[in-house]
Please model this.
Amino acid sequence: MFDVGRIRADFPILHEAINGHPLAYLDNAASYQHPRTVIEAISRYYEHDHANVHRGVHTLSHRATEAQERGREAARRLLNARSVREIVFTRGTTEAINLVAATLGQSLRPGDEILISHMEHHSNIVPWQLVCERSSARLVVVPINDRGEILLDEYHRLLSERTRLVAMAHVSNALGTVNPVAAIVAAARQRNIPVLLDGAQAVAHQRVDVRALDCDFYAFSGHKMCGPTGIGVLYGREEWLQRLPPYQGGGDMILSVSFSGTVYNELPYRFEAGTPHVAGAVGLGAAIEYLEAVGLERIEHYEAGLLAYATEAIGAVSGVRIIGQAAHKAGVVSFTVDGIHPHDLGTVLDHQGVAIRTGHHCAMPVMERFGLAGTARASFAFYNTTAEIDRLVAALAVARRMLQP
Ligand SMILES: Cc1ncc(COP(=O)(O)O)c(C=O)c1O
Model:
């Protein structure tokens, strides 16, 4: 049984009052809230185990190293990666993508192409624009249809002998579309083209198996899955990570340094220069353990129910247009209300304790595709309830009365 009441009791912040109302937190695509186990794991680490990692012979340094590596093993388990050598800690999805862009990007030549989709988050657009500028490679964009789905025929047409990498969202943050990543990867692999999947919006919502997906890189952020900010993961297939040049130079990424040359460390440390975010890795590990205990299959099933309920309830509000109606969606409802600016809507909702995101959601090309400056977006986690969706709908009615001309 999925007992959402019991789950909610694990999240202290869900019991906050906001502007005199109980909080209805429906901004999970931006960042998740944290169960007590994650908060306690981080404070336990600082109270009992903190020191620098890999550097000391003393007990605390060993404890800190072990704590960090437990987080890495949890991330390996979450993704079903073959080895912890394939799990690189980063600051988040953004840095993970930048890491691939900065390293793999060094081999790009004029005329080479990077293939992305029209629904990418800015963090899966701008890093590629930067490397394309430097190398005179070309950024090629796969179009989407009016429901917000990738046009697979176009994808197949645009894949070519010039394509050096396919970089696509697993799940779109702005539309909620779950992309057909298995088909995307299979077509690229036939041509020996590596694939990076941006999993920022996927890992907390469904079981992800990088071996089954057969992708070469997979990126996600801790804070979008009940973990802390400032920590994320780049999964890289070991053969790929072995081939890539170092990302940043500094301590921990080396085996030996002399002025005549430096020998780089083994994987994954070769990509982790400097003192890492140890407490972040600890919190990430605790978040993964929490998600595993709830069960990702059960989370996916429960959230599908929330999405269906919200799509119907929000869609029934007069003047609402839902943006993103893909056949396969995760728990995101992006919408506009006739005659009301999304920011005004968000402000009125906040006064009633309902937290949603408004604006372009760091996906301006998607907004442009739909002829919009922005949308309001409700995004769900497994700790949300249909009662919170009812509160959102009631708050929309208030906003319409107040704001519609
Ligand atoms: C699909 C997607 N990719 C990338 C990111 C960037 O994540 P972060 O800011 O944690 O690096 C986000 C954040 O909203 C996202 O939704």
Q: What stands out?
A: The pocket of pyridoxal-5'-phosphate is lined by residues 29, 92-94, 121, 123-124, 169, 173, 198, 200-201, 221, 362 (CB under 6 Å). The radius of gyration is 22 Å.
